[in-house]
């Protein structure tokens, strides 16, 4: 009886694992399959060129890739320090009641729907950005980056906090015994011990930022040009998919959607591989 | 030497502690001031008597009630699909011994976690086209398709939180269970899972939150502007996040815009109460397992 | 750490043992595994040529050994000598660690017969319900006091609530804890003091009505007074349950042991029985230091 | 919306005895509609009335743009695909689509109400969108940079605009792309330097439509032919429609349907 249950449990969990593995394989398989005709067809590699102008038969989506990377990196550059700041505040720099409030706020923020940020930002942030930057329409790289940094902040902060909480508990007494204040324990003992965790949080935040669709679609302006300034209207790969999936299924514009999907997958794989090798070098060091 | 570092961190801390709540307050402030006025029965039922609207006897066209119902059914179906494989896979990763298969699976889960939601929607869309060309020529975008794709989207959240929760338990706990004479499954069921319930429920919560708010996936797999109450898993449906996205761009007059704001408030309240409800559930379950009663 | 040279050192130590004291040889006669009536006390557990490996590392090396009923058997030795591993062979807990391999025979007296714990139990869990164990740090579950007691009774033994209630009270009384906790059974177990927690763990094992008790340095994390309470308890319990324990304190070992076993580098170096005289503290300390030199 | 509701109510009261909705009595079925965003108000109002009479008929309405309309109806994902442009012969041939034009809508250039410019020419608009004119002061307005707004590739409005006003001229890559008529209106209403284009049915007090080559963009002028930048709105089906789908299309062409079309800001067209 007990033996049977163990077997059943093993089989069930193994099967769940298999399902997950197969799903990942299917996603990659399907998208590459649908992207393939673009390369084998007449278009060839022109899809990976720098100009998007369907009216003239130019379907380059590289500007969108650049835009995706720019928006995600700027959101990360803004959101990561903020997340780190909040975590340090919660774990030692701020009075405990404030820390608890901030933690509650972060938990609440994870429940904040992305589309809510987008909706509120159209009417609040876009006019401010237009006047503040003094150029452009307010729908811009900067606007999308700002809001995205807020979107990815709670996820990053909670991942950091989970790691820091354990490390801090472990090192609290050690630090105190060395004569460190709570702040010093945090900056000199806890943070260095958590750097892998901080790195993982950054990777996670980057992944969410580059993968978000609604914020760029609603706030970045969607102009298919190379990003060159913060007030530029730009189009990310994700927004491109959302906008173009609507077109006629015969054209190369339609095919570019699947290429965009594949590019996003490749970025994802790259990030994961980099993260893994970084974490591994951290281990041996 | 230590002073600049501390100073830098302290600046970051105060900056973050001020900026983030302020930004959030500004955003919610806008939503509340502009949307609160439209929060009424008319927003939900669009002039149809509430009772008949809720039971679906009279279809609602100008209210968000069908979208609320759609989001809830989508959420339920998604979690139904994702919970088993998600937690099962997490347990597998946490309890099985190291092997090539396990390492590969771990990587696959990380990859899955990084897949953007619009790409997941795109996958659902291609799957639908494939189905129509092969075994199911009449398949259409539907609640089920959207739920499947959403389930895939939230799966890695479930897997990694379950795994992390189980792996962070002290090694001694496994030994305690074994020393008590509990079998592998019993130790898992009665000691390890309850001890890590907080973490796992946290993961479920996070997953539910993402499923409730995601727009990009359902945009491509079955959410529409008007469909009435969900009629079954094979029909199209309305959903709150999509309704918001739609209204933000399609409103025709000031009132519709105001209702758009009110709708975001409704979704916000729904998400937050999901959070509150889940943490309550978390506490209740934990207390039941612990058998702890407060005397006062 | 371990090299072949060290093995030889220990071998010489082991072979040198007969002339060190006149203690009883503790190795069981492997040829007569069916129980030897010639022995003064009945055998509660017996190991025969037991080897345990973790991966490529051999942790126990050809152990042959007997523990008796109505007696406390104390294992001493420096850390890494294999005494905890030896203790864990009796409930096959070593198998919970990755890469563990065991060879040789191990028997425990169950319902009057010496039973091979490997061949008679396809699932180790069933064995572990019969062989109770208490760890170094009190491993109370993060649940209420009552739940700590009832959880294994309910799920490992499948007992009914009335039976469980009786057993819980009985075991808590046996562990001398009943009077202290009877009015707060539903409070979190973590609110108990360290000594109380350890007695709760002991009670949890006793409630299973085990055939034998294993204790892995049960007082190492406790203060003096709490340690003495536990020691007194063990003195009372040994008549009902054969006890095998690992001790970190020579004083405690000398106070409690009916049979004292000195281990080093995965082997049994020496063995004494109380009726034949235990060594004194200085001798024991000296011998421990000698094993230290070898390691 | 209350206005809309009251209007709908008075309409339904005044037409309570009208026969058109009787066609749906006792029937059952599903109609999925997707495509052009300009069509949605008409589709929604028609669906609302039909389902109020007969809740057994389920009608779902999605936007997405004309491209989505063609594609989804062609693939059989929906029964009616709406387009704001005539189908290309390719599309008709590939999928075997049948088109029903039911309304005329004008496409008008819109600017922010605060903008002092009141008249534009097609040539100016072409230069603005090509990026040759970049400041309103070149057009007699105040000194403010022009922000360009255009629609996504799936938009029927964009096709009409590009064909009839830009004469297939280029749109500068820096132009913001918005996914719907409503989003266009929101953006232009907020941005004092904006120029964009919407269906005339969408024009209200939040945006301003300057005269185009002297023509005043209004539905009357579009109907009587004095405003020429117009398009037709189409419903498309795969093959001849049947069952409730046919009933739905027929209903749009009834006088009651025409009323709905007018109320949505378009000019009804006879079948």
UniProtKB/TrEMBL annotation, chain A:
Domain of life (superkingdom): Bacteria
Gene3D superfamilies, A to Z: MetI-like (1.10.3720.10)
GO-annotated biological processes: phosphate ion transport; transmembrane transport
Membrane spanning stretches: 12-39, 59-89, 101-126, 138-160, 198-219, 252-275
CDD domains: TM_PBP2
Membrane topology summary: Multi-pass membrane protein
Pfam families to which the protein is assigned, alphabetical: BPD_transp_1
Keywords: Cell membrane, Membrane, Phosphate transport, Transmembrane, Transmembrane helix, Transport
Family designation: Belongs to the binding-protein-dependent transport system permease family. CysTW subfamily.
Protein name: Phosphate ABC transporter permease
Compartments, record wording: Cell membrane
Domain ABC transmembrane type-1, chain residue ranges per copy: 61-275
Gene Ontology CC annotations of this record: plasma membrane
